[in-house]
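REQUEST
  id: r-88c1
  op: predict_structure
  target: Mitochondrial transferase
  payload:
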Amino acid sequence: MINLNSISTLKKCLVPLRSRSLIKVVGVDAFKHLQGLTTNNLARLKDNQISNTSSIFNGFLQSNGRLLFDSIISLDKEHYQKNHINIGSGSEQPGTIDSYIIDIDSQVLPEALDHLKKFKLRNKIDIIDITDGYQLYSILDKTYKTVRDDSLFSHLEKESCSIIMDPRHPIMGIRVLVPNSKNDASTKLLSNYQSVDEEIYHLFRMSQGIPEGKKDFPIGATIPLEYNFELLNGVDFHKGCYLGQELTSRTHFTGLVRKRVFPLVMKVDNVESVSVMDEAITDPSKPPKETLLFPKRILNSLNQLKHPDVDSVLKVKRIHTEKEAIPLDSEDPAQPAAEKVVSRSNDKILSGNHSLALGMLKIDKVDIYQLDNTIIHDKDGRELTILPPCWLSKIFSLQPPTQQVS
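RESPONSE
  id: r-88c1
  status: 200
  body:
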């Protein structure tokens, strides 16, 4: 049970990420090896023209295009500093030894090591599990202030720590990779942040609509774009060939993404103002108006209600305005005129924790401009609310214009 008193005023915190594992890929062919297996472009890590890009979000795919596991890849800064290598030059110079650190869910570590070694072939690389040599932390700060704290970065880097921007969205703060030999010094530097359990991190990312790890990404059953990979900066559609590229590219360029993962919370009556719910559709480069990590509609439901069972079907309705077209197959005389079901439901719960859940919903049932116009019930008739995900503003450009009927 979560102690609500300890998180009701939480604005920033330090979270030890003990459920994550780290793999180092080092060698002359490290770039070549990973570039052919990931959905994103590793060249961006070494592009000096791109500021604050010290990590990228990636997916490793099976040959059929389904997701095997997700990851955050960063440069092994300790390697480059120790060997006095210019990060900006990297693989352009023949014989340069590159080194990358892959941050993954510990539950997929065996599959990840097998996958990386399977395609090693003649590449001159070493693949090493380095989890036991480091401590990984996440600093959450919804105001983005931590992301801009250059003095903190400078002190940590002097202690051989790596500052890793969370590449999925600035609202997820930073990750700090600390060698075990420097753990005492870094703990002192990070003492200004309240240390909390890792469960808080997972609740926060779920509230922002960010899936992560084996629990949220079923191995071999996940189409990356349905899980918002491109909205979380996880896909480069111009990088060239990689394993499993065909399905991802075809889905993107033909516009066949008809459902997506959205953050849900069990509905309660005492909530914050509507304007706070709309904060995600304003300028995404600015911090949210609400600075608490968890708004009222989450806090007031955490210990009261339990999310629906995983894989349980949801009943989703969208309140239509008079100007909107209602598909013919949704006509149901028993439904009120303003609340007609858009289509037959296969919307369902993917994962959850306490009152929060990630749900797969058909996009045409969601009013992305006013989320409260989408009404969701579970099989027992309990109501859920869609939370504004951090990537919501990006989905606007993906929406086709609404067709009007005369």
